[in-house]
Amino acid sequence: MRLGVDVGGTFTDLLLHDEKSGRTFRAKTPSTPEDQSKGVANGVQLICEKAGIKPSDISLVLHGTTVATNAVLEGKGARVGLLVTKGFENTLHLAKSWTPGPLFGWINMEKPEPLASLQDTRGIPERMTARGEVADALDEDAARQTIKQLCESGIEALTISLMHSYANDVHEQRLKALVAEQFPDMSVSVSSEILPEFREYDRAITTVMNDYVRPIMIRYLSRIEQRLAEVGVTCKLHIVRSDGGLMSAAAAAERPVHTVLSGPAGGVTATAMTARRTGLNKLLAFDMGGTSTDVSVVQNGVPEISRSTEVGAFPAKVPTLDVKSVGAGGGSIAEVSELTKSLRVGPRSAGAMPGPVAYRRGGTEPTVSDANVVLGYLPSKLLGGDMELDVEGARQAVAKIGDSLGLTPEDAAQGILDIANEVMLGALRLITVQRGLDPRDFGMVAFGGAGPLHANAMAELLGCYPVVVPANPGVLSALGFLEAEFKNEFVKTLIRSASEEDEKKIWDSFTALKAKAQAWLVEQNVDEADQGISYSLDLRYEQQGFEVSIPVSADAVESRSGMAQVHKDFHETHERLNGVRFDLPIELVTLRAVATGSTPPVDETPPKGGTTDANAAIMDTQKAYFNGKWYNTPHIDRDRLAAGARIPGPAIIRQYDTTTVLMPDHYADVDERGNLMIWPTAKGA
Known about the structure:
- By secondary structure, the protein is of the alpha+beta class.
- It has 18 helices and 37 strands.
- Among the domains are: about 80-210, no CATH class; about 280-405 and about 420-465; about 485-595, 2-Layer Sandwich (Dna Ligase, domain 1).
- It is about 35% helix and about 25% strand.
- Strand 9 (about 155-160), helix 6 (about 170-180) and strand 10 (about 185-190) form a beta-alpha-beta unit.
- The longest helix is centred in the first third of the chain and has 31 residues, at about 200-230.
- The chain is globular.
């Protein structure tokens, strides 16, 4: 029994998988922003009741969290002290020396305060060269005095980030030992452990961010483990990383910066799983929740990995799934500007409390969810009848928008949805059109509580079909957590010419990284049969500023040969990405080894029984507003549909965890795995 838990801004989603029977159980419970662990504990009790099991029967809990992200975005992290090489105290303030242009943009720039303030930054007399040679020895007496002064000033965590420590970390490790001697309880992060790569600012800010969120993450993990124990859960808790891998709760407490995009990772992993099982090689992940919408690209069943991301105004150089987020969700608030009298939707959200007006939790401002209620897209009861909506309250709230614009409530609601869809369309264009990809070559996987509500309209705008609505779309991110594998990345910066005389150093470095990866897999208790290690090299032409990552086969690492093939792959990849190749020397930058530990796949049992006659699954018929007029629209019980069923549009397809809107001039087929496949009627058979 494995449990995936996804804490969102409005709902906490849970999915329980029984490996023996292949059955899955799902639950949604309101999130508790004041203390997310409460909502998790409530959800665990609810899903155990649904499955008819005791919490102690659960063998593993896999959790995606936004605690680290929210701490940075809200500026509510710890007070961090920073030790740098003397003379480089302004590293975080100078950042990358980038300002918006032209002049007017620079004048109006509101530069964010660094995560470690200048008054809490100290320079240490020492210096290492880029080759790892000691230029100036570490002044230990001065270091002890500085550490004592800084740690007694009231800081909650301490970051050590010295020049060129990626090449030689002896000074950083000695400073860490000096801190432990004087202040053994101080939380310390060392840049050569968190990010042993070149580029001083990226390494410093990523390590500082780790300390900034670390005390908060430690408190959160302690609370959630305590609450799980209180409701009877006895198994281990694992946290989902930003790159879709897994890490233990202890590892997450040590390196919380690797969880900054933990939440959206599950949905991308599940989309990749859907691609492999449906045979659709190109898919867009469309995850619309209550607060935001996350989109990403999956090609050939593999999600795209980015080596860095941004959390608010700050870069975080950690491996992440390449996800773009926009502030448009079911709880996004609609308002009319007093100045321009134009309609705006989001990014301000009603969140879980008070939530949309229709949720009856005290909300008074109209939201995207309220607009869906007004148009008849959402039924009067959600979550299998457990949650009754205030239809009239939603209509009155949306009518206020209509009164301001001279529109009927229906047209005002349609306007709210149109604007929300355009915001999400911008994110989808960003990951396709602006990267040279044609969205018409892709299908779309719709999930999240509101994804299936809007996916058909989004596909019509982009021309990407089919729209795939999985069997458990409302809790698909939680399902993705169950599909995640243990993962960790080990890197070494080695800037030098990628010539034959340096090959021995390259293979020696890969051997050292392999040993670290194997040791980590043993620490995580991954069985030898489930262990895997993949390798890559970051290369560039000499004098280039950015690198291209090229895979290196395990056979090449074992045989210590094959660099000619790597060079050939680099030229071809560079030409494919940038449209040009150069007859220039190639420069090696960074070596990487990624350790993975596979987990059992989630083989959901396909639907059995049911009917292929959509008319036999009609629950009732209600009015819904499409294309400026009302239609008598059937509401169909998805749980009564068998593989092979075809539903003509318009229709509202209902299930426990979400509602799917099927527009006119479209139809939906149920495939052999229970997925809904939405196509335009013009496509024909």
